[in-house]
Amino acid sequence: MKIVVLCPHFEPDTAPTGTVMTRLVHELGRRGHQLHVVTALPWYRKHRIEEGWEGSRIRRTSTWFGSVTRVHPFPGKDRSNIARRALGFGGFCALAGWGALTVGREGGRGRVDIVLVMSPPLPLGLVGWAVGLLRRAPLVFNVQDVFPDAAVETGAITNPRIIAAARWLERVTYGRSAAITVLSDDLAANVAEKVSPSHRPAVRMIPNFVDTEAIRPLDRMTAYRSELGIGDEPVVMYAGNVGMSQSLNLLVEAARQIPNVTFVINGDGSGRQGLEALAAGLPNVRFGAYQPVERLSEVLATGDVHVVPLKTGLGRVSVPSKTYSILAAGRPILAAIDPGTEVPRILEQSRAGRSVAP
Is 38 helix (H, G, I), strand (E, B) or coil? Predict the structure, then answer.
């Protein structure tokens, strides 16, 4: 089959969803399919275009599985500026749409077999549908987080008109998708409520995965622990995006009450600056930066226990992909996520941690 893929991240970008899509594309390529990926220039780690990728808004390269077209994501430095981020996503979606219309036309053949789109961003789904319409291909819509629900639950979007418009866009995209894949039964139930009864069989649950050869258990006394200035004391770690979804201020407050345990917040995001200010003067709090993907096993091994928190309501619209990576690294998890949702179920079944209500 010839497949056009639209996704916000792809290796060498370090976003977890980019890793998932890269592995999926590689596996489909190994099975003989031709794939043409349209994605953003690498920008996730520093929220700006990575060094060596500047200077061009569109880059296309041939690969062993087909091609990769990278377009400018228009990242903004202020990640809390929702209007600026929306404009950036709009620009990215427009360029991605052009890229998806022009790839894979060898011999003048414009038709493809499938258009596969990863969301968020939500508007990319409608772009994928339009591309599929013009290239006579069905849309497969891969939902990593349910939007706008996730943005509403975190308070990122509060304007009723914007929420209503986003919900309309969500329903329209679902209705035009030949298949809608989600990460858990909770997300499947959420999406199924928003489509017609006749369209509900199109909603399929396919969980994310982790490469257990790339992420494996290591000794706790890592080089990264030394780089952070940590000795043999117990380490509680949060690794991932530092944003509006996690209530990480509670981790800093826990550090105040448990001085003989070191707390590591490893990652970046819109909430990091505020957390650093909150933790000022606490000797048992460390902040680490994103590390190359090759060091992920080492970074995760540095934590004796990992925390996976989500604000109330988010457990039914999102599944933190870090859960699978932490388990692959052989570390236990303390989660604060809506009871009865995917992560608490995983921890109960695997006996690899505990979960409480947020």
Answer: strand
Integer Cα distance of 23 and 65 in angstroms = 12
Find, among 79, 13, 51, the residue nearest to 272 by Cα. 79
CA 338 to chain centre: 19
Strand runs labelled E in 206-304: 235-239, 262-266, 285-288
Higher per-residue pLDDT: 49 or 21: 21
pTM, two decimal places: 0.91
Task: Answer whether residue 76 shows pLDDT above 80.
Answer: no
Q: Is 262 helix (H, G, I), strand (E, B) or coil?
A: strand
Q: Are 69 and 99 in contact (CB under 8 A)?
A: yes
CATH fold of 223-356, please?
A: Rossmann fold (3.40.50)
Contact (Cβ atoms closer than 8 angstroms) between residue 261 and residue 284? yes
pLDDT tens digits for 296-340?
Answer: 999 999 999 999 999 999 999 999 989 999 999 999 999 999 999
Residues of the chain with CATH 3.40.50.2000: 2-205, 223-356
CB 120 within 8 A of CB 151: no
CATH code: domain 2-205 is 3.40.50.2000
Q: Which segment of 9-18, 56-65, 108-117, 202-211 scores lowest on mean pLDDT? A: 108-117
φ/ψ bin of 104: left (φ > 0), alpha (ψ from -120 to 50), beta (otherwise): left
CB atoms within 10 A of CB 1: 12
Token couple for 16: 């977890």
